[in-house]
Each structure stands twice: as structure tokens, then as C-alpha cells.
Amino acid sequence: MTTATIAIGSPALKRSLALVEQRKRWMAIALTLPLLLFLLATLLVPIGALLQRAIENPEIAKSLTRTGAALADWDRTSPPPVAAFAALVADLGAISEGSDAGAVARRLNTEASGARSLVMGTYRALPLGDKLTPEQTREKLLALDERWAELRYWQAIAKNSSRWTPDYLLTAVDLKRRAEGGIGVVEPEQRVFSRILLRTFEISLVVTLWCLVLAYPLAYWLSTLPARRANVLMILVLVPFWTSILVRVAAWIVLLQREGLVNKSLVSLSILGEPATLLFNRTGVVIAMVHILLPYMILPLYSVMKSVPPTYLRAAVSLGSPPLAAFFRVYVPQTWPGIGAGALLVFILSIGYYVTPALLGGADDQMLSYYIAQYTNVDINWGMACALGTVLLTATLLLYAVYRRVVKTELSLG
């Protein structure tokens, strides 16, 4: 017995056990490494590129380097220095590709309207002459287009001469950097993104509430059924997952039009006197989104409800509680985790929706994702698109952080 005791507590055995534990850890890391690499390549790297592009401003800094340096000490209120005119001509003359000049023109045009035609007209007219002094270059440039005397174009160049800028992010929350310095709120008629963000949250909240109202009784009913019947009905719940979103949206367009099945049914049942407008407005968007996202609410609720013992409710009723009061006081509080998880999942999915509002909604029903696609595919302004995507990502992370805080508080109180 003494020998066995010594063997059990010997340093050699401890080293052997530590080696086994280390091998288990390395094996676990090796098994999860492919997943980690996949997440790094498909999630973290794109998110990092998104965040970088939201603050990157390469067009002016890359192509108008000399001009930016000439305007570095300019107070942005007095006429620009003469050297800036010569630097601008030299920078534009050094651009070999017309697409690069177009990128500069588009970027400046977002700051000062008319800059695109001004820059491209000057670019096509180069060279202005050989061995010109800065004063002569200035006169030639003003003779070519007198708009070069306007401060707003030079202010736009000076403002964007740095490679990194907060302008996209500020614009995404209806703020701006003033040409003379400092940050201010944009003009009331230009405050569009705050309204779009509020509209996105409003539509998402309405969709989440409707999904909860429809999913809760259905999930409760499924949880009370025998396993065989519940599994069969759960397949029907999951059927929307097997159908393309575009197909479902197209089906709703057919159903919700003025001569569609929904309007005909409501009119034939005398619920409506005439067909209602259910397409290209908020109603159609909410109906289609609720239909698409309803399974995401049912599944978390069902999984939580199946774990709630039915004896709790029967015990409350047997102790004298009315059935309805027992349901809301005993049963519902035990399903809070499912309600929270389902609501969070549906809400996060809703705020990123693009196809459904674009096809079924009107101009005042488009959500933030629509404008991200607009800046990406139409305006070719990736910086603004990434800034709006960053705002959407930040809102999602904040929402998730609030949810985690609430859940943690409830668990600690419980």
C-alpha cells in the first residue's frame, strides 16, 4: 500500500497526467482550428475591411498629393495660395487613367456639387502649357473655368486630403465636418439617415411583435402535443426555410394585389367594401417579413416550452389560481428565455432586410440595407456604404449587449 501511495503521488505521474491534459487541449484546438480559420476568412476579415473602408478616403490623398500639401496650412477662408493651383495642375496631369480622375471627381462632387464636371473638364484640357509660373498657371486655370475661384471646391480638396476621414461615419448619423473645421449637424432638409435608421428599427420592432403574437400560441400548442404529431407539424413550420425568399415575395405580390386572393376573400366576406391597397406600402412589407421570419420565433419558444414541466401549471390551478392567471404568472415567466432569444433573433434579422422592402414597399418603406445596396451598386460610393453597414453592425452589437445584460440581471435576481 505504501508503494502504491508513493507511485500515485510521484512527480513522474504528475508529469504524465499534465502531458495527457496538454495533448487533449491541443487535440481540441486542432479540431476547432478549421472552424476558426473559416470564421476568420468569412466573417472577421470582411468586417475588418468594412470598418477600414468606412474611414478610408484614398481618392484625394492618392491622386492630389501635391495639392493637399499646398493646402495644408491654408485657413480655408481666404483665397487659396497660388502654389495650390500649380500643384493641382501637376497632380491632374500625373493621372494616367481616366477612371482615377473620375474617382477624384466623384469624391469631390459629394462634397461640392459641380465638382465632377469641373475636375473632368480640367483634366481633359491638360496640359495648359510648358514652363508656366504658379501665377500663370492660376490665370490659365481660371480662364479655363472660372469656378476654380470658388472656395468650396478648394475647401473640399483640403478637407479630403488625408487618407483617413470620419466623414462617412459622420454623414451616416447626420453629422458633418465643416469646411472651416469642427463638427456640426447637417441641415434639416438633409437629415435623412437618422430617419432611415429609425424607420428600420420601427419596421423591425413591428415585425418582431407580430411574430411573437402569432408564434407564442402556436409554439405552446405544439409543446402540448405528443411528440409524433408535434414533429409532423414542425415540418410544416419549417417549410418556408426550403423556399427561396424571392419566390415567397413573388407569391405575396400575387396574393396581395388588388385583384389577388386576399382582397377577394376580404371583399367576399364583407369585411371590406372595396379592395385594400396592400402592396408597395408598409402593410405588405410587414406581412411578408412576418411570414418569412415566423419560424425563427417559433423554434426558440418551442424548445423552451418543451422544457417547462406541465405539472407546474396544474399545481397552480389545483391551489386555487384561475387558469388564465396561472398561465401568465407561472407559465409565461418560465418562457422568458425563449421570448428573448426569439425576439432578438427576429429583430436582428429584420434590421438587415433588403429584398422584401425593396420589392413590396414604397419609397418611405425602404430600410437601411436598401441604401447600402444603392451606394454600393449605383452610386459606387463604397465608403458611404461601409459607413452605413458599420452603423447597422454597431446597432446590432449594442442590441445584443443590452439583451445579454438583461438576461444576466434576471439570472442574478433569480
From TrEMBL:
Ranges that cross the membrane: 28-51, 201-220, 232-255, 276-299, 339-360, 380-403
Membrane topology (UniProt): Multi-pass membrane protein
Domain of life from the UniProt record: Bacteria
Keywords for the protein's UniProt record, in alphabetical order: Cell membrane, Membrane, Transmembrane, Transmembrane helix, Transport
InterPro entries attached to this UniProt entry: MetI-like, MetI-like_sf
Domain spans labelled ABC transmembrane type-1: 197-403
Cell compartment(s), UniProt: Cell membrane
Pfam families referenced in this protein's UniProt entry, alphabetically: BPD_transp_1
CDD domains from the UniProt entry: TM_PBP2
Record has Cell membrane as a keyword: yes
Record family assignment: Belongs to the binding-protein-dependent transport system permease family. CysTW subfamily.
The protein's name: ABC transporter permease
Organism of origin: Pseudaquabacterium terrae
